[in-house]
DNA sequence: ATCGTAATGCGACTGAAGTCGCATTACGAG
DNA sequence: CTCGTAATGCGACTTCAGTCGCATTACGAT
C-alpha cells in the first residue's frame, strides 16, 4: 500500500488538477508538489504532532503564509497529501484462490506497517488525517478507493463460483483488513504475521458462508450443518 | 461500554490511588476528581482538538499550572481519564450461545458509538488517546482489560463444547469488534446495525472453525492442500 | 494546637501558531 | 514584447499553549 504522493517530483505538472487554478502548469503546480513532498517528509520524520507549518514552509521553500492561504493549515496539507495518494494504482494479487489473495493483501498491509522503513509515512498520515474534518474526508475517500480496487479479488471469486453471487467485495476486504488496522490504530497492540493470516482466513471463511452477500445464502451459518465441536 | 470516569463525584476519596501521593485522602484527591470530570466534560463538548488545558482549568477550578505539573499536559489528562475507566466492570451477555453473545457485544458497541447522547465522550477520548505515548499506553491497557473481560464469552463457549479447546478468547472478541472500530476510527465510514451483526457472525464462524485456537483444528479450512502459488 | 512539607494558586514570561496588509514575482493572453 | 492579474514572498502583529519562580494554602504528623 503506497501512500507516497505522486507529486514528489516538481517536474510533473498537471497530474492532480484538483483545484482547477488558472495556472495549472506553472509555479502553482511546482509549489504544490514541493509542499506535498515536504509534508510527507516531515510527517514521516517527526510524526503527526511534530508536523509544523513552519517546518513544511522551511523545507519546501514556500512561505508560511502561502501554506495557510492555499491549504488552510496543517489539516489541509495532510488531506492533500492523502488525496494525492488515493488514486495511486495498487498491485492486486491474483492467485486464483480467494483465501490466498486475501492472505497476500493482509500480508502486504502487515509488511508496510511493520517495516520501520515504510511505516512512518502512512502511519503518521492516517493518524494525522483523523484530526480534522478535511483529513477525515480525504481518508474516507482514500479507503473507499482502496476497498473498491481490492474488491476485485472477491469479484473474481464470485465469477469463479467460489463465492455466492451478490457478495459485497468491499465488505470482504474490510473484514480481512479490519483486525490489522484495529490493532494498529485503535488498541495499539502489536501486529504479527499470524494475525494477518488469520484475519484473511476468517474473512474468506465468512465470505464463503455467504455472510457478505446482499441476500445471505445462509443467514444462520452455524447450528446444524457445521458444528465442529471439539 | 462505559468510558465515564469513576471519579465524577469529588466525595469519593481514594478510589484510584494510582499515584500513591503522600496525601491520598485530601485536597489532591478532590483536585484529581474535579479535573478528570472536567476533562471528560470538555472532551465530550468540544471534541479532542477543542480540548484545552485552560478550559479544563477554568471548568475544574484548578489552576492551569497545576494541570501541567500533575498531568504534564492534555495527553496526561486524557490518559488519566482513560485509566480511570479501564477497570470499570462491564456487563457481559450470557445467552448460552456464542453467536448471540457476540451479537450483543457488537450491538452494544454499535449503540454506544451511534447514539449522539453517549458517543461523544468515548469517541473523543479514544481519538485523543492516540495522540500521545501516555494516551496510547492507557488506551492499550484499556482495551487489554476489555478484551480480557469479554473473553469470558468465548471461554464459556469452550466449556460448552461450542468452541475447540485452546481458543484465544480475546482474539475472538477482537475479530468480532474490529470491523466496527475500523470504520469508526480508521476509515470514518458509517456504521449500521447489520455490519455489527455480520461482524459478530463472522467471528463466531471463524471461532467455530478453530481459527483462533492456539493449535488450529483445521489450519486450511478450505481447498485441500495449500499451494500458495496459483 | 503547632509545625514542616508538599501541593496548589498566581501572574509574568517565552515561544510558536496563525493572520494581515502590502510589495514583488511570475504566469498567460494579446 | 507588454501588460493585467493572480499567486507568492515578506515581515509584523495577535493570540494562546505551555513554563517558571515565588507566594500561599492545606494536609498530616507530632
TrEMBL record, chains A, B:
Compositional bias of kind Polar residues: 1-16
This protein's record includes keyword tRNA-binding: no
Swiss-Prot/TrEMBL keywords: DNA-binding, Transcription, Transcription regulation
Residue ranges of DNA binding: 52-71
GO terms assigned for molecular function: DNA-binding transcription factor activity; transcription cis-regulatory region binding
Transcription regulation is among the record's keywords: yes
Region (Disordered), start-end ranges: 1-31
Chain ranges of the HTH tetR-type domain: 29-89
Alphabetical list of Pfam families matching this protein: TetR_C_11 (PF16859), TetR_N (PF00440)
PANTHER family, sorted: HTH-TYPE TRANSCRIPTIONAL REGULATOR RUTR (PTHR30055), TETR-FAMILY TRANSCRIPTIONAL REGULATOR (PTHR30055:SF148)
Protein name: TetR family transcriptional regulator
Species in which this protein is naturally found: Kitasatospora aureofaciens (Streptomyces aureofaciens)
Taxon lineage: Bacteria, Bacillati, Actinomycetota, Actinomycetes, Kitasatosporales
Amino acid at each position: 500500500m503506497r501512500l507516497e504522493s505522486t507529486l514528489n517530483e516538481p517536474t510533473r505538472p498537471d497530474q492532480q488538477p484538483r483545484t482547477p487554478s488558472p495556472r495549472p502548469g506553472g509555479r502553482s503546480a511546482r509549489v504544490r508538489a514541493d509542499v506535498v513532498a515536504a509534508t510527507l517528509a516531515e510527517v514521516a520524520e517527526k510524526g503527526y504532532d511534530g508536523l509544523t507549518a513552519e517546518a513544511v514552509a522551511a523545507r519546501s521553500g514556500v512561505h508560511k503564509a502561502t501554506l495557510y492561504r492555499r491549504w488552510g493549515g496543517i489539516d489541509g496539507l495532510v488531506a492533500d497529501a492523502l488525496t494525492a495518494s488515493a488514486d495511486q494504482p495498487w498491485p492486486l494479487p491474483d492467485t486464483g484462490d480467494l483465501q490466498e489473495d486475501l492472505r497476500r493483501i493482509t500480508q502486504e498491509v502487515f509488511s508496510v506497517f511493520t517495516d520501520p522503513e515504510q511505516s512512518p509515512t502512512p502511519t503518521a498520515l492516517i493518524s494525522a488525517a483523523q484530526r480534522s474534518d478535511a483529513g477525515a474526508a480525504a481518508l474516507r475517500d482514500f479507503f473507499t478507493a482502496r476497498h473498491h480496487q481490492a474488491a476485485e479479488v472477491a469479484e473474481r471469486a464470485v465469477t469463479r463460483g467460489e463465492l455466492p453471487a451478490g457478495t459485497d467485495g468491499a465488505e470482504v476486504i474490510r473484514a480481512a483488513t479490519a483486525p490489522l488496522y484495529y490493532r494498529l490504530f485503535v488498541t495499539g497492540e502489536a501486529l504479527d504475521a499470524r494475525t494477518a493470516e488469520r484475519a484473511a482466513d476468517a474473512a474468506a471463511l465468512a465470505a464463503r458462508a455467504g455472510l457478505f452477500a446482499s441476500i445471505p445464502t445462509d443467514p444462520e451459518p452455524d447450528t446444524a450443518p457445521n458444528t465442529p465441536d471439539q
